[in-house]
Amino acid sequence: MKKVVVSAFCALFSIGMYAQSNTGNLPSTAQDYVNQHFSSVSVVKVDENSNWQIWEDDKYEVVLSNGLKLDFDENGNIVEIDSANGEAIPASVLPAKIATYLSANHANAQVVGWEKDDNEQEIELSDGTEVEFDAEGNFRKLD
């Protein structure tokens, strides 16, 4: 009986350590973002891209249990959100101007992708439409 209790304690402790270390290598900005917007979803995996991959804009990739993939730059700023299985991206993570435009013009479509770079932001909707915005969130065009 003592072995069972000790084994169970060790198993629970190791699971807790794994879950905590899962986001431990992320910058605090990225950790705060995940906790603020996705606190009800567990983190499945965190990958840190190698420094020699200079063509990569994203430094950290976080995979959530609901199928969303979050990419962060080296400072922990979000640069991309993708849905692997059609899971809708919460409107709360989108810039306010973009969320307002989408609710007014594409109210029935769910957002399944968002990407930001220096000059623009791009939204992918569940119906396949791509909507482009400038860096400030002003509408540019539909693709």
The beta-strand count equals: 8
- Let me know the average pLDDT: 84
With helices defined by DSSP (H or I, 4 residues minimum), what is the helix count?
3
Assembly status: single chain
Instruction: State the helicity in percent bands.
Output: 25-40%
Query: How does the major sheet shape up?
Result: 8 strands, antiparallel
Strand content: 25-35%
Unreliable stretches: 1-21
| General shape | globular
Order of strands in the sheet with the most strands?
Answer: 1-2-3-4-5-6-7-8
Cα-atom Rg, whole angstroms? 18 Å
What's the end-to-end separation, in Å?
64 Å
Name the helix and strand elements from N-terminus to C-terminus, one letter apiece.
HHEEEEHEEEE
Global structural class: alpha+beta
Describe what you observe in this structure.
Residues 58-140 form the Putative beta-lactamase-inhibitor-like PepSY-like domain. Residues 1-19 form the signal peptide. The chain has 143 residues and is an alpha+beta fold. It has helices spanning 2-22, 28-37, 96-105; strands spanning 43-48, 60-64, 68-72, 78-83, 111-116, 120-125, 130-134, 139-142. The protein has three helices and eight strands. It is globular. The protein starts with a helix and ends with a strand.
